């Protein structure tokens, strides 16, 4: 289902086939968390060049509920999206809540007990239930339940999360096989399955996690099984000061079988995507382009962006309000809410062919944000997604 067509250094260009369609790698997936991308319709997404997207198991389980999605015929039909969808396990949302607030739930080797933020009801998410829910959603790609500890934890606590992640991955694979048989899903129509490599900032823990996951993929309980279709980079890819962990990113990629997909979960700034792709990662997802757009922050390509992507190196930006963050020479960002755009009657980006840039000025968009008209969020989000679509094209051809 995944074929590497060419390589440029460690960067891979490939082709991925799923039951809902084919796509080129590397690719970026916007987050349609609750079954939609905020403020955008399917026409907007298609015009922006979007193919696959990510939905959230945890949020869809709580609302509208899995039974509703099943009655609709699956999440693709519920959303009216005929292109590929990937569901995450929901674990990140649950565990981030619990790690921040122990009263929100409890993590055990059996699974996670948590309270619904909607009505306060208690729920238990086990590896088996996470897989069953994702089959009910009917997605093209699914992710195992894993434990996502923050980097600030001491090594033993992260090692414990690695042990739990490995145990849960084995149970997920067993349940995956059971669901395929139970639902009589053939090889052609089966969803792809991903595991996640945890280990924080510790090279030895990431190595141990990857080795054990590979073993599970090819020899889980019950005899030989299909290997994992892909492996994810678990937890944050930056340290507590915001510095990019390039050695860790590159090292983790080297641990993954060559023919498997490499999924950089939650990686979404343009510069980080370029870095990950240069280290051999194939898939990315994040809320950044649409979330930033809804707040008036727009991404602009520079004229020589393609060559700069090819040659760009990480540099410190001393003027940034974010400590130790980096900027790339291939793009810039503007905040359209700034007063200087009040009488700027030029396009947001003269080289962009999105609906915003072809029809409206910076001054007009600022006006829409000032009066809080929903059109402002829609136009800015579409523009940013178009930027990301073009970014992925440039990465593939640079």
Describe the structure.
- The protein has 398 residues and is α/β, with parallel strands linked by helices.
- The chain has 2 domains: 2-286, TIM Barrel (Alpha-Beta Barrel); 293-397, no CATH class.
- It has 15 helices and 18 strands.
- Strand 8 (112-115) and strand 9 form a beta hairpin.
- The longest helix has 29 residues, at 155-183.
- Residues 220-225 and 313-327 have low confidence and may be disordered.
Short description:
The protein is α/β, with parallel strands linked by helices.
Could you name the key traits of this structure?
398 residues; 8-stranded parallel β-sheet; globular; alpha/beta; 15 helices; TIM Barrel; 2 domains
Describe the secondary-structure layout.
Layout: E1 2-8, E2 11-18, E3 21-25, E4 27-30, H1 42-47, E5 53-56, H2 57-62, H3 66-72, H4 75-79, E6 85-88, H5 91-100, E7 105-107, E8 112-115, E9 122-125, H6 127-137, E10 141-143, H7 155-183, E11 192-197, H8 203-219, E12 230-233, H9 246-254, E13 261-264, H10 270-278, E14 283-286, H11 288-294, E15 297-301, H12 305-311, E16 315-316, E17 326-327, E18 331-335, H13 355-359, H14 362-370, H15 374-397
Parallel strand pairs: 4-14, 5-6, 6-10, 10-11, 11-12, 12-13, 13-14
Antiparallel strand pairs: 1-2, 2-3, 7-8, 8-9, 15-18, 16-17
Helix pairs in contact: 6-7, 7-8, 11-15, 12-15, 14-15
Can you tell me the CATH architecture of the largest domain? Alpha-Beta Barrel
What percent strand? 15-25%
Protein structure class = alpha/beta
Report the sheet with the most strands, covering strand number, pairing sense and barrel closure: 8 strands, parallel
Radius of gyration: 21 Å
| Tally of separate domains | 2
The CATH class name of the largest domain reads Alpha Beta
Distance between the termini: 25 Å
What percent of the residues sit in helical stretches (DSSP H or I)?
A: 40-55%
Mean pLDDT: 91
- Secondary structure tally, helices: 15
Spatial ordering of strands, largest sheet: 4-14-13-12-11-10-6-5
- By DSSP, the count of extended strands is 18
In the CATH scheme, what's the topology name of the largest domain?
TIM Barrel
- Unreliable stretches, pLDDT < 50, 5 or more residues? 220-225, 313-327
Q: How would you describe the shape?
A: globular
CATH superfamily of the largest domain: Queuine tRNA-ribosyltransferase-like
């Amino acid at each position: 289902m995944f074929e590497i067509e060419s390589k440029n250094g460690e960067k891979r260009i490939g082709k991925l086939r799923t039951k809902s369609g084919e796509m080129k790698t590397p690719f970026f997936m916007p987050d349609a968390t609750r079954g939609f991308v905020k403020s955008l319709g399917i026409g907007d997404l298609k015009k922006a060049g979007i193919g696959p997207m990510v939905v959230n198991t945890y949020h869809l389980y709580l609302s509208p509920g899995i039974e509703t999605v099943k009655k609709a015929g699956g999440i693709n039909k519920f959303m009216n999206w005929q292109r590929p969808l990937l569901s995450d396990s929901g674990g990140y949302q649950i565990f981030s809540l619990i790690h921040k607030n122990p009263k929100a739930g409890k993590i055990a080797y059996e699974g996670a007990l948590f309270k619904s933020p909607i009505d306060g009801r208690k729920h238990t998410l086990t590896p088996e239930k996470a897989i069953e829910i994702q089959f009910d959603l009917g997605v093209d790609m699914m992710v195992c339940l894993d434990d996502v500890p923050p980097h600030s934890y001491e090594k033993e606590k992260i090692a414990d999360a690695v042990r739990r992640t490995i145990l849960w991955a084995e149970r997920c694979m067993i349940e995956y096989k059971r669901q395929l048989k139970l639902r009589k899903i053939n090889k052609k129509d089966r969803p792809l399955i991903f595991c996640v490599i945890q280990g924080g900032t510790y090279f030895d823990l990431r190595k141990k996690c990857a080795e054990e996951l590979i073993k599970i993929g090819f020899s889980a309980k019950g005899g030989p099984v299909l290997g994992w279709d892909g492996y994810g980079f678990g937890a944050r890819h930056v340290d507590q000061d915001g510095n990019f962990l390039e050695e860790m990113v590159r090292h983790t990629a080297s641990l993954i079988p060559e023919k498997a997909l490499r999924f950089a979960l939650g990686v979404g700034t343009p510069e980080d995507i370029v870095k990950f792709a240069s280290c051999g990662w194939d898939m990315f997802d994040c809320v950044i382009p649409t979330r930033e757009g809804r707040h008036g922050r727009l991404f602009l390509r520079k004229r020589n962006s393609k060559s700069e992507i090819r040659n760009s190196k990480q540099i410190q930006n001393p003027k940034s309000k974010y400590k130790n963050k980096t900027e790339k020479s291939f793009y810039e960002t503007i905040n359209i809410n700034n007063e200087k755009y009040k009488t700027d009657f030029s396009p947001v980006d003269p080289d962009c062919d999105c609906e915003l840039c072809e029809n409206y000025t910076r001054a007009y968009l600022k006006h829409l944000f000032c009066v809080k008209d929903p059109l402002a969020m829609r136009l800015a989000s579409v523009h940013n997604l178009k930027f990301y679509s073009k970014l992925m094209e440039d990465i593939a051809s640079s």
